[in-house]
Amino acid sequence: MSREDRFRMIDPSEGLSISGQCKALGIPRSSLYYTPREEPPENLAIMRFVDEQYLKTPFYGVNRLHQELSQNNFTLSKGKLRRLMKKVNWRTLYPKKKTTKADPEAYKYPYLLRKLTIDHPNQVWEVDITYIPMEKGFMYLFAIIDVYSRYVVGWSLSNTMSSEWVVASLKDAFEVYGRPEIINSDQGSQFTSKSYVDLLQGVGSVGGSLIKISMDSKGRALDNIYIERLWRSVKYENVYLVSYETVKDLRRGLTHYFEFYNKERLHQSLEYKTPSLIYSRAA
């Protein structure tokens, strides 16, 4: 049972206390009371604009994005823009330079999906984190998608981007769907952390199979194209249409959306079938 399923089971009207229900379901009580990260209203408006702009022009750097904001009557310094771009997890697309030097102390792995034939479920999962604007703040959304079927095997919300959050979410997905052969991500700090690498390599777990680690080249976010397309769908078909006020409303809304995405939404790339049908048929 996923973490989001366990969240939905908690009922304040039950005789057992909220603390008792959380303990029984194995979820931290604090995660029930997440509040959106706060920024001044002006910054939230800029971040919302920047987030929408990323889906249109992910190849823009600071200079062009600053000009775009100026032409839309936003006034801010480039230093402030850089800070807000970091907040929304903006990753400019650009050709990888041959002179790029990797940090020898960081966990970095090659991109394994190039020319790979993906022909069955749980062969390749892609993972990523995106920014979710809200009425009075913002949250981060982590999702896991099975590349073959486009089935979302897991997702969760947090107000911080921590490796602990990512690892806990992956563990939930493993419990329900098993461990995939390959997981692809970008080179973000959450995915180069020791706890993340140890989890995928089966360190400290009983019977934990080795998962091959694949990472996008720096500046090549579209190496993770399937989950980038998921973000576009989630935002244009749900988040931008609904001005969520509370984390509870956001969690409920995304729960309904992902149910729709997996089980009802017809995908052109799947010959107008649903991810759930493709995943269950071949699993």
From TrEMBL:
<protein>
    <submittedName>
        <fullName>IS3 family transposase</fullName>
    </submittedName>
</protein>
<feature type="domain" description="Integrase catalytic">
    <location>
        <begin position="117"/>
        <end position="283"/>
    </location>
</feature>
<dbReference type="Pfam" id="PF13683">
    <property type="entry name" value="rve_3"/>
</dbReference>
<dbReference type="InterPro" id="IPR001584">
    <property type="entry name" value="Integrase_cat-core"/>
</dbReference>
<dbReference type="InterPro" id="IPR036397">
    <property type="entry name" value="RNaseH_sf"/>
</dbReference>
<dbReference type="InterPro" id="IPR012337">
    <property type="entry name" value="RNaseH-like_sf"/>
</dbReference>
<dbReference type="InterPro" id="IPR050900">
    <property type="entry name" value="Transposase_IS3/IS150/IS904"/>
</dbReference>
<dbReference type="InterPro" id="IPR048020">
    <property type="entry name" value="Transpos_IS3"/>
</dbReference>
<dbReference type="Pfam" id="PF00665">
    <property type="entry name" value="rve"/>
</dbReference>
